[in-house]
Amino acid sequence: MNRLKNKVAIITGGAGGIGKATAKLFLSEGAKVMLVGRTEQTLKKVIDEFDSPNIAYCVGDVSKSEDTKNYVNETVSKFGEIDIFFNNAGIEGTSKSIVEYPENTFDQVIAVNLKGVWLGCQYVIPKMSDGGSVIITSSVAGIKGFKGMGAYVASKHAVVGIMRTAALENADRNIRVNTIHPGPVDTRMMREIEREISPDNPKEAKKAFEAGIPFGRYAEANEIAKLVVFLASNESKYITGTLQVIDGGMSA
């Protein structure tokens, strides 16, 4: 407990499964949390569930520079500083081969998953306290390919490049920058992917995914959140520029 006492954290994609689970653990460890998301109603629901003075929300689209500036400024105005940035927002796109993939969907995936990460780093890091931590959500799809997920795979590979560059550029301030690489997590995103792959029988798609995981199951959001807490805390103060894989052995 209190590994993050008095630290201020921003979580993009804050109302999603991983974002919400991480916010819960951050609060339990003493942090103050700003949730960022596109839908006010969903964010309010999360805030109401936690019922804490140490959590707030800001509505914004991470792919837009003005919205990014706004959530950074709102965090500083509300809590006074930024120590932790969980650069987590992401969308899955659709499931189609590269030759069939819709251009507008490709653009949306790249805008949120890649440009959103880049803009977040661009505007958060200058306001971040020295010794802070940036954690970027990539995926097992950031280290291997998957049929029908070309845009998602491309975006999740690309954020590794941003992470490595940001880690080098900010080492003199002792700001750590790392990516996390979850395999399938039992959240809404995987429900959508399962339905995309097998509209008539999404449970079969889930079984196929699980068959490719040595542990034989999806991760729980809380399991991913525990890794994020470690990377946000001083326990990881000598870890930067790394890919932290948490996929139940899927990439082994």
Automatic annotation (TrEMBL):
SUPFAM superfamilies, alphabetized: NAD(P)-binding Rossmann-fold domains (SSF51735)
Kindly indicate where the leader peptide sits in this chain.
none
For this protein, the record's Pfam families field holds: adh_short_C2
Q: What is its EC number?
A: 1.1.-.-
What family classification does the UniProt entry report for this protein?
A: Belongs to the short-chain dehydrogenases/reductases (SDR) family.
Task: Give GO terms: molecular function aspect only.
Answer: oxidoreductase activity
Q: Does Ubl conjugation appear among the keywords? A: no
Which keywords appear in this protein's UniProt record, sorted alphabetically?
Oxidoreductase
Going by the entry's taxonomy, the superkingdom of the source organism is recorded as: Bacteria
| Protein name as it appears in the record | SDR family oxidoreductase
Q: Which NCBIfam families match?
A: PRK07231.1 (NF005559)
